[in-house]
Design goal:
Layout (H helix, E strand, L loop, with lengths): L6 H6 L7 E4 L3 E5 L9 E5 L11 H22 L3 E5 L14 E7 L16 H14 L1
Antiparallel strand pairs: 1-2, 2-3, 3-5, 4-5
């Protein structure tokens, strides 16, 4: 189940150190070693799966309760002005480690993180066309 070349599998196996925040049957959470803001941390599935598309739904179901627990602690400890959950799938999404993880990303007002996009009015014909395409694949 573990991938011998995967850095997160090595962390779960205890072969690489981490600042562990939380662990249960399915989930492991730790500090990100390259934090954007203080409190930036990661929730990873214990089972190796490349990303959201490959992950076991039962593992994914354990992610949000763990995220809530950690976010509450981050909120109490650091009082950020906001928290994003960020989860990248594939290179254009910025995924660099190919083992499922969700970032807990504390925000500060005007911190300049390039996560927020403006709300330009959508082309409804195009939205509908894309909607139909996704629904056909559901
Ligand atoms: P992503 O770019 O969304 O795939 O996120 C991967 C994250 O893993 C990055 O924010 C890295 O800083 C983080 N990361 C990589 N190696 C480690 C490690 N050994 N311990 C903790 N975080 C790590
Ligand atoms: Zn892995």
């Amino acid at each position: 189940m573990a991938d011998p070349d995967c850095v997160f599998c090595k962390i779960i196996a205890g072969e690489i150190p981490s600042f562990k925040l939380y662990e249960d049957d399915r989930i492991f959470a730790m500090m990100d070693i390259n934090p954007f803001n203080d409190g930036h941390c990661l929730i990873i599935t214990k089972a190796h799966a490349e990303n959201l598309l490959a992950a076991d739904p039962n593992d994914l179901a354990a992610v949000l309760p763990a995220a809530q627990k950690i976010c509450r602690a981050v909120e109490a400890a650091l009082e950020p002005e906001g928290i994003n959950l960020v989860q990248a799938n594939g290179p254009a999404a910025g995924q660099t480690v190919y083992h499922y993880h969700t970032h807990i990303f504390p925000r500060r007002l005007n911190d300049g993180a390039l996560l927020n996009w403006g709300h330009a009015p959508g082309d409804m014909a195009r939205v509908e066309q894309v909607y139909n395409k996704i629904m056909a694949a559901m």
